[in-house]
Give the backbone structure.
Amino acid sequence: MKSKANIGGAHPLFYPVLVAACLAVLTPVLWMVSTSLKNKTELFSDPPLLWPESPSLAAYRSVFTDYPFADYFTNSLIVVLTATAISLVFSTLAGYGLSRFKFSGRGAFLAFLLLSQMFPSVMLVIPYFKIMKTAGLLDSRLGLIVTYISFTIPFCTWMMYGYFKSIPRSLDEAASIDGCGPARTFFEVILPLALPGMVATAVYAFITGWNEYLFALILTNSESQKTLPVGIGQLIGQYKVEWNELMAASIYSTIPLMLFFLFLQRYLISSLTAGAVKD
Amino acid sequence: MKTAAKPRSPAAIARSRAGATFVSPAMLVMLLLVVYPLAYGIYISFFNTNLLNRWEFVGLTYYAQSLSDPGFLKSLVITVVYAILVIGGHLIVGVTLAVMLASNVKGNVLFRAVLILPWLFPEVVVAMIFRLIFDPIFGILNFGLGAIGLIDSQVAWLDSPTWAFVAVVGAAIWKGYPLVMLLALAGLQSIPRDRYEAAALDGAGRFQQFRYVSLPGLTQILGVAVILEFVWWFKHFTIVWLMTKGGPVDATNVVSIDIYRTAFQSFDFGRAAAMAVIVLFICILFAAIYRKTVPDDEI
């Protein structure tokens, strides 16, 4: 066990600073919740009501009845989950290969993985627009899935590579002495140990995809194919904004991320820093 | 007995083959989905094209034009300033909070749960929340400032070039500091406690302990964070686009928005592609720094 760092005890001044920081976080969040519960008259009350007098869930219903919100939500789920699953399979295999074997092109591949973090997404969106158009995948979920895989695979491979490095090689060697080939060693010995890393990697891929806006904005057109970020982004019209509906939609789209984090935060934080912090 | 310069045992060859087998699926996908589009994007940058029927080769014209275009250069400057302010904000807020959370402060778990929240909001949602906050009529900012008497009229924050820039920086700091906070917290917790005890024995006060024990323990992890963050925020699009569309005038016209406009509003695809390649080179410059920051055994 590592001992926990402790810069002396807590200084009394820490409390006001932490409370102020929490207020800075919670005020916008509560303002969002409060706005989502207002009805039309309360929205326009001057001065603004801090909390609606008769909180109503009307906006939470009307985003589904007045807008194709269910489509946006389904599209986001399908696109992001599929891209995440595919990326996870490829990146787990690649991460293991990179962490355990020497082969020609390994160094170049690792360098490219890092480099791929540097590409501005606007740089890829122009060729992707043309490629998808030619392939007939413009305005389709399949097109988005392919695009999302392109930016989740490099990142996921890098994360899995880091995670596999933290699993002692002696386990591979022991399996090998027991007569396991590389495939059996991987599937029966190492893969079960890598599950926490895979969970964390999947969550990161999910968060990245769930956040993605630019590609979906450019590659989709019809309401039936748009994702949640694009759908929410266009709720903010030129002339009028239904703030209560906009905030209700925002809360809906945040729920999956909150749930993921709630259940998986243990894996997330430890994997985030695996390899980055030396013991 | 003389052997070849690099003798390879059958076992080594088999292992090399196994490694290639594990990696090749991902490598193929990346060739197809990353390398090819990238090369195609560079190709487009040499053409005056609408991506349909007009493909007129112009060589490096667009590079020359972009690099001498005051509008583009200004957007690069805006982006650099934006990225530096956002990352500076993340570091100050993130490290300060991490140091406090790493102490035995009461209510630690609760503070941590609240302070991590912004990270869990999608970028689109963050942009929307902050548009609502800065809204002249519905915003809580005008209400709050009015209530304490700092302003007496409704200020349209996002219509003012200066305040709009402050607002998009603020929203990005709010959204992104938790990641730095988590990284710094993990870094602090990996510093052995006896170093603090040794420093305390040598008479180091709280600030000196932070300066001479905590900070050196954090440099590696924060070094990596800074470079990655720079690349992320340098190419950031979503929050700025949804809050200001790059305006008012061009006050928040970060380079991603400039490129987006050139490509998908002016349909000047070749020129936009050239601008994107220039941005890529700037990011690669930072990639080089990143490679130096990450110790060799990471590669």
The first strand of chain B starts at residue 47 and ends at 49. Chain B has two domains: 10-44, 64-298.
